[in-house]
Amino acid sequence: MAMPKSEYIWMDGNFVKWDDAKIHILSHVIHYGTGVFEGLRCYDTPNGSVLFRLKEHTDRLFNSAKIYRMEIPFTKEQINNAIIELIKKNGLKSAYIRPIVYRGYNELGVNPFPCPVCVAIATLQWGKYLGADALENGIDVMISSWNRMAPNTFPAMAKCSANYMNSQLIKMEAIVYGFVEGIALDNAGYVSEGSGENIFAVKDGIVYTPPLHACILPGITRDTVIQLCKDLGIPIIQEMLNREFLYLADEVFFTGSAAEVTPIRSIDKITIGEGKAGPITKKIQKYFFDIIEGRIEDKHGWLIKVG
User: Where is the chain membrane-spanning (predicted)?
Assistant: First the structure.
């Protein structure tokens, strides 16, 4: 299925028609992966359209750029305003938003410094990332043969385009073998994350998730779920997890801006718990969606109104 088009894309301060949003084939980002990006959602609620954790996503975009020595030629406020104005201009009530900062066209050598830092933002309609019924019924996944990058190779804390070549290998392998998604281990063999999601496991009423030093992206939905567990009085522990711990868990689920809170029903064809969303996953899911869809108070200030 082709990507659904919106009318405009924001590029370096200008609203450009979707089909005219182009870059040069010799742009540095195409050849060397020199881009950092974000993914966040706008939700349609009874109180109007809201952006979920806009500030935190923009902060992470700037942090990713900082790691790669990319000076973004706009302020955080300008990026936030551009996102809001783009949603309005495209007439969207709900959307997935993709800001990207990238090295553009000037020189072709590995050295990125001579190439300009460019910024673009797209908004599009994107449904449930891991399938329409995934939130209820869960998904089947596998442990990937591809590991996450070792520390001090590629910075896992940066949401960098180049890092997602590793993610593509994980995702393609899973699809070829008949699974929806793959789970990567780190270079020491501990559980890291999915190709584009953080992972949580539930055992005996306690929620576990790998820490940042398991070569994971510091996920904003991950951080949200950690806070939701605290709100709900559910014990949450960040520690290194063995692969087999996932097999024996009562529940396992993915989190991410695209994946939201998606249960995992089997790993390597081993059924997890009852083979569907478990009670704690459902409790977290409900609390998460009640907040972002405006049914209960947003006491953490996570939602920004678009209108």
Answer: none
Terminal Cα distance for the chain, rounded:
31
Please report which confidence band the pLDDT of residue 129 belongs to, taking 50, 70 and 90 as the band edges.
low
Is there a catalytic annotation at residue 159? yes
Helix or strand run (H / E) with residue 88: helix 76-89
Structure-token pair, residue 222 = 């991950």
Summarised one tens digit per residue, pLDDT across range 232-247 is 999 999 999 999 999 9
**Contact in structure between 231 and 302 (CB atoms under 8 Å):** no
Report the distance separating Cα 236 and Cα 252, nearest Å: 13
* Residues across the chain: 307
**Cα radius of gyration (the chain):** 19
Where would I find the H helices in 101-209? 134-137, 164-176
CA distance 26 to 114: 13
Instruction: Tell me the two tokens of residue 256.
Output: 């991410």
CB count, 10 Å around CB of 53?
Answer: 22
Query: How far apart (Å, rounded) are the C-alpha atoms in residues 223 and 38?
Result: 15
Q: Enumerate domains of the chain plus CATH numbers.
A: 8-124 (3.30.470.10), 134-292 (3.20.10.10)
CB 236 within 8 Å of CB 230: yes
∠ CA 25-28-32, nearest 5°, is 110
Cα–Cα distances in angstroms (integers) from residue 239 to residues 191, 213, 217, in the given order:
10, 9, 15
Query: Is the overall model pTM greater than 0.90, yes or no?
Result: yes
d(Cα 303, Cα 91) in Å, to the nearest integer? 19
Among residues 5, 159, 203, 299, which one is catalytic?
A: 159
Residue 85 amino acid letter: E
Residues whose CB is less than 8 angstroms from the CB of residue 196 and which lie 6 or more positions away in sequence, other chains included: 129, 164, 167, 171, 256, 258, 259
